[in-house]
Amino acid sequence: MVDSALHFAAGFFGVQQFPTSYHQLIQIEDTGFNSTLAPYDACANANNAIADIGTAYTTNWTAVVQAMQQLCAYETVALGYSAFCALFTEEEWRGYEYANDLQFWYGSGPGNPAAAAQGIGYVQELVARLTQTPLTVFDTTLNATLDGNNVTFPLHQPIYVDATHDTVISTIVVALNFTSMAKNGPLPADHIPKDQTYFAQHIAPFASNLVAQEPFIRFLLNDGVVPLTGIAHCAEDKDGLCALGDFVQGMKERIAEVDFAYDCFANYTVPVPDTIIDGRMHK
């Protein structure tokens, strides 16, 4: 992940220029340290039975077979070819895809009650950057030491780049309230629905990236335009555009409705069946 960020900088600024044009800050990823790029370490319910909701849907998988399918993907990326790929039929690959969809939906996606809480700190940072407003309240996964310092969290840069894990991108997508991906959820565990709108491959393929562009803000998730119709004050637009002021207002309202303390630390029981579609545990 660190090397990927450095290679991006080398490509963006130039190999000769990036050491002086780009500053990379590596955050501590461990229990006891707040980080919006590793929010699970600051969210207790991301490390207990609630975090295992996705795993509960995978107990019937044949572990060795799943590992062989995973090897197909990893070897293809690393080596360009994998003999494991030809061992499975198209139907079996569709089943493998859906298994990952279930894992993401219930583990770090719209179906997990602590997902929005984990991603909301990054949304707070995004709003601060877009409005060039210093952060003063640190009650989520925000790191007061880093985010409260204009050297480690500058607000007047032409571009910001953050590198993190695929599951964190998933929680950020939920926190941003990109509802189009979840409009036909929740995902059933006993069959693959024909009207499925949530696909893990769209959110977290290898080298997944989420790009925000302004001044009329829009988001590109792995080069695909994301509809912003689930965000308050953002009207439907064929190009996924929303006026910056309207988007910021919508995000402020989203931040206010996500109860980080409750979703991450309260002792609650997830409904069965799990009908959550916005990554929050409604009281």
From TrEMBL:
Alphabetized CDD domains for the sequence: HP_HAP_like (cd07061)
Entries under PANTHER family matching the protein: MULTIPLE INOSITOL POLYPHOSPHATE PHOSPHATASE-RELATED (PTHR20963), PHOSPHOGLYCERATE MUTASE-LIKE PROTEIN (PTHR20963:SF42)
Top-level taxon in the UniProt lineage: Eukaryota
Protein name as catalogued: 3-phytase B
Molecular function in Gene Ontology: acid phosphatase activity
Keywords: Hydrolase
Keyword Transmembrane helix: no
